[in-house]
Amino acid sequence: MWGIVINPVSGKGKGARKGAEVISFFAEHRLPYKIISGVNAADTSNKLQRFFDERSATGGHIQGLVAVGGDGLAHLVLQKCALTTIPVCFIPAGTGNDFVRSLGWPVEGLDEILRAAVTKQPSGIDLGLVDGEWFGAILSTGFDSLCNERANALKWPKGPMKYNVAMALELPLFKPRKYTLTLDDQVIQTEAMLIAIGNAKSYGGGMLVCPGASLHDGLFDVMILKPVSIPTFLRIFPRVFKGTHIQHPAVKIYRAKTAEIDANAVAYADGERIGSLPVRAECISQALLTWSQ
Question: Residue 163, CB half-sphere, CA atoms under 13 Å: how many?
């Protein structure tokens, strides 16, 4: 039995459309499945747990999950499937789809991802664990987290433009924070505009903030952007989409298995609010079974 977890409202309705295509694929291939979808994230999480519990109580095998949605749904599913034997196939149907990008699949992919899930063996990838919460791509704090806070409070516009508006509103007011960062046994005290702890390469819809990060090395890539002027920041920012921002002297890259961050700031992971610092994150090897390229 497969579980098909769908967020129908992700990507302005793309979740519903791709969900229907996934169901058609399973019906066409005569594969047993159960649809799991809730009215909100908490309801979906409860229904997914109920699916697991029912299968366990009856001795039924779960062959895998298909998560149809964006990074928010991926984040929800990670909380249930990390460190289990249940493999997860991720179908991109959100606005960012950075976790699917990190797995090497095209963001418009569907058939090739599903074919891999039903014909090939899954393999393990690393996940980040921050204060008991799993994340797949990026844990960050600083300017981007403040933009997330601002965007979440905006009622207009909708979609990806909301973050751009939030950034335009936040940048003139932004001041770098003083951070204490402990990477394994190394303690770094620095002012920074942004710190990104990368289990994977990208966030924000393709920003390669940690372009060297790998899902298979058991380590985080840690990107620190030290204070720069607003004009310099605006020159550096577009380069993040190619990952060439790391060539700027204000950008420092470290690698570590554990990262502790302390400052008067908040942290986000995979676009979800983690909360106020301090936080501690660890890269957990082979924490999730999935299909990647």
Answer: 13
Give the chain's residues under pLDDT 70. 159-160
What is the four-CA torsion angle of 130, 154, 167, 214, rounded to 10 degrees? 30
Report the candidate in 93, 125, 92, 101 with the shortest Cα–Cα distance to residue 243.
101
Residue type, 206: G
Q: Has residue 129 been placed in a domain?
A: no
- Token code pair at residue 65: 């999950």
Cis peptide before 157 (omega within 30 of 0): yes
130 within some domain: no
Task: Report whether 95 contacts 161 (CB < 8 A).
Answer: no
Q: For residues 293 and 138, give the distance between their C-alpha atoms in angstroms, rounded to a whole number.
A: 20
Q: Are 268 and 205 in contact (CB under 8 A)?
A: no
The pLDDT assigned to 160 comes to 65
Q: What is the pTM of this model?
A: 0.93
Which residues partner with 194 through β-bridges?
142, 225
**Are 154 and 279 contained in the same domain?**
yes
Residue closest to 150 by CA, chosen among 172, 128, 134: 172
Q: Do 207 and 115 belong together in one domain?
A: no
Residue partners of 138: CB distance under 8 A and separation at least 6: 98, 196, 197, 198, 199, 200, 202, 203, 209, 210, 269, 270
Per-residue model confidence (pLDDT) at position 158: 72
The partner residues of 258 in beta bridges, in order of sequence, read: 282
Examine the domain organization and report whether 116 and 237 are in the same domain. no
